[in-house]
Design a protein that fits this description.
four-stranded antiparallel β-sheet; 11 helices; 40% helix; globular; transport
Length: 270
């Protein structure tokens, strides 16, 4: 298995007045090419700080982050920014309300000079269709779309750069349950179809179960467990992981049967 991204003894310390806060403490982990690695933990666990260091928003205080075997510099190049893209939690705040959807999707194509200029408008339409939206949505504004549609646009924008690694920072937490399920299915389909690699930041373990290959559990800035998703849910090793699993709402057998029956009916209608 090839590591696309590697963190080697990475730490991040913030200074607040005369006090120092160790947000991430001596973390080492690999993200394997083609996998979805979920990083989970409560607020303040360090998971978002790890994401920001991967993206180059924060430089590590100690340790190194390597991409394709080469250490990433503190000041990321345009090529690095193209290769590692972000999908944010709130798509409304991440999209410029003064730009049309088409203009927002075309911007990364122009910045990174991807494809012939004359073909970029058509490329925008292809990107929209790839995330399940009509090509004519390019003329709309973010405020005219639903939350799920805006998140699809945000995903399309990350894909526009033909990136290798996508960091998803709580991408479904602002969505209702049905829309959340559709977005997760879209992300799974895109990962398989494009061969993408995901780092999925979340506090919601029910989401993790539906998308992640492996789970990294963070507590107070430290990586306390890293295991396949099946192991995390069937045989969690660390006491903190067991507490997180114990806090997940339990679904009864009757509810599972009802869900499966309803999903079968929906599939037949489709």
């Amino acid at each position: 298995m090839t590591a696309l991204l590697s963190l080697d003894r990475v730490s991040k310390t913030f200074t607040q007045g005369r006090h120092e806060v160790r947000a991430v403490d001596d973390v080492s982990l690999d993200v394997i090419q083609g996998e979805c690695l979920a990083i989970v933990g409560e607020s303040g666990s360090g998971k978002s700080t790890v994401a920001n260091m991967i993206l180059g928003i924060y430089p590590p205080t100690a340790g190194t982050i390597a991409f394709r075997g080469e250490a990433l510099p503190a000041a990321r190049t345009l090529a690095h920014r193209r290769a590692i893209q972000l999908v944010q939690q709130n798509p409304l705040s991440s999209l410029n309300p003064k730009r049309s959807i088409g203009a927002s999707l075309r911007l990364p194509l122009d910045v990174h000079d991807l494809g012939p200029r004359a073909a970029r408008a058509a490329r925008v339409g292809v990107l929209l269709e790839e995330v399940g939206l009509p090509a004519d949505y390019a003329r709309r504004t973010p405020e005219s779309l639903s939350g799920g549609q805006r998140q699809r646009v945000a995903i399309a924008r990350a894909l526009a750069c033909q990136s290798d690694l996508v960091v998803l920072d709580e991408p479904t937490s602002a969505l209702d349950v049905l829309v959340q399920a559709r977005v997760l299915k879209l992300l799974n389909d895109l990962r398989k179809g494009r061969g993408l690699t995901y780092v999925f930041i979340t506090h919601d373990l029910s989401v993790v179960r539906n998308i992640a290959d492996r789970v990294a559990v963070f507590e107070r800035g430290r990586l306390v467990e890293l295991n396949p998703t099946e192991t995390i849910f069937s045989d969690p090793h660390h006491p903190y992981t067991r507490r997180l699993i114990g806090a997940v709402p339990v679904v009864t057998a009757d509810e599972v049967r009802l869900r499966d029956r309803l999903m079968e009916n929906d599939n037949e209608r489709a």
